[in-house]
Design a protein that fits this description.
This protein has helices at 2-15, 57-71, 205-217, 221-228, 245-262; strands spanning 20-28, 39-47, 52-56, 85-89, 92-97, 105-109, 116-124, 127-136, 139-146, 164-170, 175-184, 201-203, 235-236, 242-243. By secondary structure, it is α+β, with helices and mostly antiparallel strands. Strands 7-8-9-10-11-1-2-3-4-5-6-12 form a twelve-stranded mixed sheet. Strands 13-14 form a two-stranded antiparallel ribbon. It contains five helices and 14 strands. The protein starts with a helix and ends in a 12-residue tail after the last helix. It is globular. A hairpin with a 4-residue loop joins strand 2 and strand 3 (52-56).
């Protein structure tokens, strides 16, 4: 019996030692005051021998268009809800984004995940799974992981269980990830980037929290600075209407604040606590 178990584990590790793409359906409620509005996106967790990368399929497609248009000398503004990527490398977790009024940000997250593995078992996506709970980023989470896929990874920043996380949701059911597909990928993870030669701005968790609060309080700060530098001039909009630069700044400020007001149920809800 011991020999059979050892052979099974070796076989499982061999199968999943190849580069894999785990596709999750992510359902989330951006506005806690409107729980009928549920947004769904497909998220990719690409795993290779050296690292894993978690990102939005839609954002990937938009960034691919941006890069292709830039090569033609054209400018394309991506339209996406999820702007971040999560990289796990050598037991470190990095939050990557070009949001918050800066260029490329890399935030190292050192927070520990203290999982509580529970006895309950269920079948998800055809796999035998076991239940685990976790308090993290201001939310209580329930996860289901499978030993059939001996990879201690999962969607978003979640990791550290003895098998892949097949499903995870928070206690309010505002953020739910479900595994829906597994694919082989031939190469290491390559993500299209416009400024591939630009170095990342390195921040720790505390510095990022300060930046986040500053952005939420004054999201048009960068636009206002560009206007003061003379880089936003009086111009005609796409409808042919003449607009002053100051009007453009005011509209950016108003529209961004309206968007953020409805974005009050973010996954890391503790970031909204001052």
């Amino acid at each position: 019996m011991k020999i059979i178990i050892i052979l099974f584990l070796l076989y499982s590790q061999l199968i999943f030692s190849q580069n894999k793409r785990f596709i999750y359906e992510y359902s989330f409620i951006p506005d806690s005051t409107n729980r009928t509005h549920v947004v769904k996106e497909f998220m990719f967790l690409d795993i290779s021998d050296s690292r894993s990368l978690f990102y939005s399929q839609h954002k990937y497609n938009e960034d691919s268009i941006s890069v292709a248009e830039a090569e033609k000398g054209k400018f394309y503004i991506p339209n996406a809800d999820i702007l971040y990527k999560i990289e796990k490398k050598k037991n470190d977790i990095f939050f990557l984004t070009s949001d918050y009024g800066l260029d490329k940000i890399r935030v190292k997250d050192d927070r520990k995940m203290n999982w509580n593995i529970l006895p309950e078992r269920q079948k998800f996506f055809g796999y035998d799974t076991q239940k685990a709970s976790l308090d993290f980023v201001g939310r209580k989470w329930i996860a289901w992981f499978t030993l059939d896929i001996p990879i201690p990874d999962g969607p978003y920043k979640f990791h550290g269980l003895p098998g892949l996380i097949v499903k995870i949701e928070d206690g309010t059911k505002s953020h739910i990830y479900n595994l829906v597909e597994i694919k082989n990928i031939s190469d290491d993870i390559k993500y299209p980037e416009l400024n591939s030669k630009t170095k990342d701005i390195i921040l720790n968790e505390n510095k990022f929290r300060e930046l986040f609060q500053k952005y939420r309080n004054d999201p048009a700060a960068e636009t206002r600075q560009l206007y003061m530098q003379g880089k936003i001039i009086d111009q005609k909009d796409n409808l042919g209407n003449f607009r002053k630069g100051a009007e453009i700044v005011r509209d950016v400020d108003r529209l961004t604040k309206e968007r953020l007001k409805k974005d009050n149920n973010i996954i890391e809800i503790d970031l909204l606590k001052k």
